[in-house]
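Case study.
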Amino acid sequence: MNTKIRTSLIAISITLGLTLLKFLFYFLSGSIAVLSEAWHSFSDITTSVLVLFALWRSASLARRPPQPAAEGGRADGPARPLGFWRFMGRLFGEQIESTSSLLIGVFLTFISVSLILNAWSTKIVLIQRPLLTGILFLILSAGSYFLFRFLSDVGRAENSAALISDGLHSKGDMACSSLAGLSLILYHFGINIDRWVSLAIALLILSFGVEILFNVFAHLYGKRRDFRMRYRFLEILGIGFEKETYLRLFRWIDRKYSVDILRSTLVRYARLSLRYSGYALAGAALLALLYDMRFQLEMDEQAVVERFGKPRTTEPLGPGLHFKLPRPIDRVRVVQTGRIQELFLGNVSQEEERPLIWGNEHGEEVHFLSGDNNFLNPYITLHYRIRNLYAYFYNIENPTVLMENISYKILQDLFTAKPFYDIAITYRREMESAVATALQQRLDALDTGIEVVAVNVKDIHPPVMISDSFENVIASYQKKEETINLALEYRNTEIPASRGEAYTNVSDARAYVQEEVLKSQAAVAGFRAKWSAYRSHKPVIRQVLYFTSIVTALGEREKILVDPRTGELDLYLTSGAAAPLPGPGGTEE
Amino acid sequence: MKRNIIVLIALLLAALFAYGSFFTVNEGTSVILTQWGKPVRNLEAAGLYAKWPWQKVNAFDKRINCFEAQTLQLLLKDKNPIVATCYVAWKLHDPKLFFQSLNNVDNARLKLGDMVNSQLGIIVSDYEIDKIINTVPEQVKLGEIYSRLQAESDTRARQKYGIEITEVGMKKILYPALVSNAVYQRMKAERTKEAVKYIAEGEEEATRIRANTDREVKEVLATAYKEAEEIRGEGDRQALKIYADAYSKDPEFFKFTKSLQVYSEIMDKNTTLVLSTDSELFEYLNSRKLVR
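After joint prediction, the assembly is written out as follows.
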């Protein structure tokens, strides 16, 4: 194992430790800057592993015996591989260190872009234990600094570009750790730069990635055999702004693919248009000027044209096509005077879908006091339009604010002089016209040019938190009505029933009368018949009647015949037959 | 080439000079032109004006500007606290004084807000709560408060800031949080009281209706009973008259037939008769009589 490999192994172990610690700190703190830094350290391990791999490969290549020139394909002649294959040969052949650097560059670029996106999209997070993690991070940055010095020294001594680039990486790591630690400490003191530090670390990683990539490509396409980090990031940015860079690129393309971009049709036309661009610009400016001089007013619009700030006419311009001088001479001010506009009072909710129920918050509500010391929340919409454009523009700086304030005052004055239920129930219609009249008077007095079209009291309700007690009152009122209705139901049942009963009684009495009279008449008729017969044969009829009746009277009844002389029982008769005498000593004769 | 550059620079300078020499006064604004910090002209009419490039244009809005002052808690004469939010509508009265004392709109709002709030505190301390909140509109003195507030603020604003106060009022009058909570509780208690009252009233009315119903029912039935009895009595009278008319012709026969009828009616099957064999009915029952 040579020194380079041993160094690389040590670097990997240290970085692994640092990475684990940084992820632990992320879970402790929740800072996205710490997360960026931890990923950065994780990328360090990967890159260090790549460096190690490259060093192994180059060490094994160095041990092989040298090959003849003809077989290596590097001599001039038809056997030499072309373009891409030559590039690949160099990539995985003798230039293994630059290859690993290329992979490091790609990896760093990928990681940095991911971190930038993460920092951009993350919502604000609360950081836990910022002071402690901040101090620990500052200590960790010392570890990174040690690694940077170690790798750089060994890399220079061993002339290993891979170790030097890895060292650079550790240097970046140290800067990032310090920055992250600092941001955490600042957070402790109330300054939150977490997101920005996360972004800065990510951009720093990106700059390292771009720097390494650029140097690798410069080496692969350049003439120098040894790979070194020749260009710093800022130099690379500068190269992008130099004309010579592009000229060299075009010349290279011309040499390589025989395409002369500088003399191409596209470039010729571009030069030609640049020559006539003055005219084109003048034409476009003229068109823009003409366009600016015309303006159109729709049906509901009116406008004032101001020349150097002063209205040109005393009457506003109506719908149609109009012309004016270009700016800054003339300026048009347009307003939709026809359209009715709306102002919300007491409630700024504009959710028309939402039902206005007392138990729901209607939106952002404003409390008012009623004359009987109750809170109330009105929801009033004010419809208005601009009647006088000049007054609207030139008399009031903020007409809507003024109108809103005056409306609130008028409402407050009305409410503080009325009891709650009057405001909520009986006074509503009157209130609409009272507010409209009072508001219009004030607006006219201040010459605002605004016309109040309508005041609509959509809702007036008690505060949501006590609305249920108001609903209880209504529920109790309903209960009262229900109780009364039940009593009335009783009344409506009982009184007709009693009337029916009374009628039956009287009717029965009348029937009784009829019955009695008829019965008496019948009895009398019978009597008369019997009497007429009786008068002629008195004794016989008397006997007939007696015996007929005595049968009916005595027929089926128990009879005991007693002999009055002896006082003894003579005969005991049950219905139809003689029966034994009841009691002891009774004898039948 | 050198000449061209000189011409170009000269033209540029001339353009800059021209640009600095003209200015517009917009409708609704007032301009104070200052030269090295010293006011030299005051322009009110809108239009295009010329000036020296080193003169500075200070434009002020002449229109009515309205803003809401800071909400504050105040004590009334009867020690009741209220939370009031004022609004102030004002406009420029003396541009020069305004320029010197306040300079800009933001500053004006701050100073006016302070001044109006302080005046409001002084004025409302002369009034009790029932002069602000009362169901008898004649007793509410808000109009008087506003008039005093406007008059006093306007005088001060004109003298000190060059500002005219066109409108001032309280857009919100509320109670502090603690008092508000008490008001909520009271409102709730009042509602409960009202709810209970409704229920009791319902019961009272229902009881009354039931009692009246019962009374009316009894009245109806009693009236009917009386009528029925009268009718029955009349019926009885008629029947008795019919009987009397007929039976009085032979009372003895009536007594005889009626007695016979009554015998059979008053004696049912369970009646046991104890009869004397000596009676006329059993005259022939005795064997001795049969033999004889």
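Observations recorded in class. The first strand of chain A starts at residue 294 and ends at 297. Confidence is low (pLDDT under 50) at residues 67-82, 583-589 of chain A. We will return to this complex in the next lecture.
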